[in-house]
Amino acid sequence: MTRYTAKALPRQPGVSGWVAMLPDRRPRPALLGAVTADVAIIGAGFAGLAAARRLSQLDPTLQVAVLEAGIVGGGPAGRNSGFIIDLPHEVSAESLGSDSATHARRDIFKNRTAIALAQGMAEEHGWGPEVFSLSGRYSIARGAAGDHHLADYAKQLEGLGEAHRLLDAEETARLTGTRSFSSALFTPGTAMIQPADFVRRFADALRDPVTVFEQSPVLSIERQGSGWQVTTKAGTVAAGRVVLAVNGHARSFGLLPRKLMHVFTYASLTKPFDPALLGGERNWAATPALPMGTTIRRLSGPEGDRILVRSRYTYNPSITVSDAALASAGRVHDRKLASRFPDLAGLPMQYRWAGAMALTWNSVPVVDEVDQGLWLAAGCNGVGATNATANGIVAAERALGHLSQLGQHYAEAAPARAIPPEPVATIGGKAALRWKEWRAGDE
Ligand SMILES: Cc1cc2nc3c(=O)[nH]c(=O)nc-3n(C[C@H](O)[C@H](O)[C@H](O)COP(=O)(O)OP(=O)(O)OC[C@H]3O[C@@H](n4cnc5c(N)ncnc54)[C@H](O)[C@@H]3O)c2cc1C
Q1: How confident is the model over 320-347, as pLDDT tens digits?
Q2: Domains of the chain and CATH, by start
Q3: Whole-Å CA distances, 90 to 290, 291, 347
Q4: N or C: which end of the chain has fewer CB within 10 A?
């Protein structure tokens, strides 16, 4: 009898500021007793929710049960920096030959398909710009290496016909209220979300015949006739098909051995401050010019403004991080805040947290039927607001035998390459992250 048993369940380190800033919400009830469904989805992050939405678009009569281990919004999908990015990070790495142009265009198509799904939800349910907004993003530089990278990237975008605007140091200071940045590049197609609010509303908008069960960690998935029995602590779902959308925790079910690298990243959010203390615009969001640098987001709200700092990556094959790692990243965030915003000297952080991501060696997604009727959507590769959403869309389509253009692109992509055996993977993974962070310097 085929059975996949969860060897570990997710734990969410620290206190996510995105959740803490929201009013209380009554979670959907946990699964109790035995239910049946056409499709069971495990995990209510970007991938699981997108899969639920896509299934109900393709067949509104499908009975779908979504099982989330924790509270919706408490996991990585609700604790990220909120960028649903349309353009690939790395088009500027090489000059665009026809292969890399095709690759970049496919990436953009994937990302925009994901953004369209999120935008469709926001428009259908009337969510305001504080939840979802097509406000674009800045890439921001703090020195010559970053400036150079942005100028190169702008040329590549030109070649792709993608809208963008370079800002010099003066314009960047007008945007950010600080002279700590040397240039920026604006691209208009990124959607910004309040991630916890977005995924909560997303889950709450899913209605019968889609049912979301929270606080229902799946302990096993077992073959039952031609379908599967999914078991939680207090209930079971008998389903014809299963979509496992737990990102790196696929490994906890014994799936994708040696295919996923488990990396955490960290964020801190300041206490609110009086907006008069810092010039510039009151709502902007910037990813770093150089990969592995620091993300900064300024938010305005009724109690004042806040700054989000996201930086540090750690390699954690245990899919957990210690309090010490969280505290250490927090000290880095404090230094980054102080060096970038001297006008906010002494402003303390109020919340600090971390979240898990799963990367593949060659940065490809994994959407596969790993066993008959058991579909996997994994490999967010660090930008799961787009990648995991797209993975969920494709997993849903393929589970119903539907082939879209996006699904066709996935089918033509290279398979995920195996990572080296232990301990080489961990030693190499840690060393590679350190080296890349060192190269990013103060960016
Ligand atoms: C601080 C931070 C900033 C980030 N910023 C960005 C950003 O701006 N843009 C971006 O694109 N990405 C960002 N990311 C990455 C992004 O959050 C992830 O790539 C994304 O959440 C992955 O989506 P997912 O649906 O694949 O997995 P997850 O969001 O991890 O969702 C998987 C869900 O499965 C659940 N689960 C696991 N095991 C079980 C089980 N046994 N039973 C039931 N449920 C289970 C988990 O609780 C979880 O809710 C950031 C991440 C962090 C931590």
Answers
A1: 999 999 999 999 999 999 999 999 999 9
A2: 3-79+196-260+362-431 (3.50.50.60), 136-193+262-360+434-440 (3.30.9.10)
A3: 9, 8, 34
A4: N
